[in-house]
Amino acid sequence: MDLPQEVSADAAETAVDVRGLSVEFPTAQGPARAVTDVDLRVARGERLAIVGESGSGKSVLSLSLIGIVNGSGRIAQGEVWLDGRDLLALRPDELRRARGKDIAMVFQDPGTSLNPVLSIEAQIVAPLRRHLGLTRAEARERALALLAETGLPDPARTLAAFPHQLSGGMRQRVMIAMAVACEPTVLLADEPTTALDVTIQAQIVDLLSRLSSERGSAVVFVTHDMGLVARFADRIAVMYAGRIVESGPVLDVFADPQHPYTRGLLASIPAVDGPLPDRLTQIDGSPPALTDLPAGCAFVDRCPSALPRCADRQPLLTERRPGQVAACWATEPADAPTREAVLA
237 and 253 in contact (C-beta within 8 Å)? Predict the structure, then answer.
């Protein structure tokens, strides 16, 4: 089902179009839906942040976009359209060719993502030669230029190094250089600043922002850090228990969040000025088990605004202002269509 949050992006400018994506993992208690019926459309050059607590499904969603689901998980349904192709319907060899060239990823931990027994040169040159058909000399020159572009002070020395010889920030810049090497249409970044100090975090986010602007790549940025979202993203999608519960332009969502969960996330951020509170605001309770989700809104047991129907009727994403949607009975406009009417 196409959702109202995506009507603003012109089809010709769409970088990636996700339709009805669901991902599940088998457990002893039955299948656990880590991602449920997600629709997303990201325009070329746009920066989308996906936020939520640990376990909300944001990392599983990003990995699923390139057909990678950890462990025994599987993509239960859905499509991921890129340049007129459904990536999830491609043969394994076709998908391997698309990764790196058309869609690429910056993983959370470069220490485990880079091959420890290969030099940085070997790891950057190989995809350049495979995807772009460059000679070894041409690929090496491009690798040097890419490392310089990411702000590494001595590209030649970095190229000759092995991952363990670089700092965490340097390894992450190498990962970004590898990801943008073939100028992909879509760049996925799964919490790429988690293990870095605040100064390096800001540098990495600014680097991703600049590369996106210069190259026109869409960036899907997974994070739990709302401060980084404010610094980096054009739009935000808030996930809870595998579903998107609110999305829209960052400034609009921050100024007037329409879902109680979004409000809770924003309220938990400590202020940088004014008097310090006695304690930080928190969202009481814990997320529900993905094997035993309620029939209605998954946030119902933690929600301060819950209504009786929230427990047994799943709210739809409905438009609150142009480009901003939320799935919440308590804040839904009186004239919004019911789920039964939409599905009729």
Answer: no
Calpha distance 50→220 (Å, rounded): 7
Q: Six-digit token pair at 135? A: 């000679």
Distance in angstroms (rounded) separating the CA atoms of residues 93 and 43: 26
Q: Which residue has the tokens 């230029």?
A: 145
Give all domains of the chain, ordered by start, each with its CATH number: 4-102+224-270+283-343 (3.40.50.300)
Buried/exposed 37-57: b ≥16 CB within 10 Å, e otherwise: bbbbbbbbbbbbbbbbbebbb
Q: 218-261, pLDDT tens digit by residue?
A: 999 999 888 889 989 999 999 999 999 999 999 999 999 999 99
Identify the H or E element spanning 276. none
pTM to 2 decimals? Answer: 0.88
- Closest to 14 measured CA to CA, from 6, 22, 23: 6
Is the distance from CB of 65 to CB of 15 less than 8 angstroms? no
Q: How far apart are CA 119 and CA 130, in angstroms?
A: 17
